[in-house]
Amino acid sequence: MKPDYDPRVLETSGDDVTIDDNSMYWRGDYLFDGVLGEERSDGGFEFLSFKDGVRDGPTGEIDEDGDLVFEEWYRKGHLHGISRVFRDDGTLLRATGNEFGVAIWTVDFEPDGETARPASVKQLSESSRRVVQRYRSRYPQLPPVLGPEHAGDITEH
């Protein structure tokens, strides 16, 4: 399945991108905004998106035909959104809703890639709940992760 963006077109040369001791990405004197990618020997392409020096936006891998192998969404440096894994034939295998790096729910798909099995909603440990609550108060502008009913729509993140 093709993404609704082309990471190869968005890719920025990473030759002058540096990482500081706080894991912030810089281009010269400015926090890095853009996509870093790497062509693989099999024709695939791996990519990472950044905004204000941290991972923000889609990260993943596409195959030689431009179809997604997997895709994760980051916000303000945290895995925050719907991650998806695809089968070799391009159909959706699994989607997981992540909030600040904590998996909230998972949906597995039948071999047709469209029929969703019942969602598995995670029972969070007390420490995981505290992590999510702490980051929710730190980043109130970030919306909660969409629910499992959005798992099959790759335009939803």
Automatic annotation (TrEMBL):
Highest taxon of the lineage: Bacteria
Protein name stated in the entry: MORN repeat protein
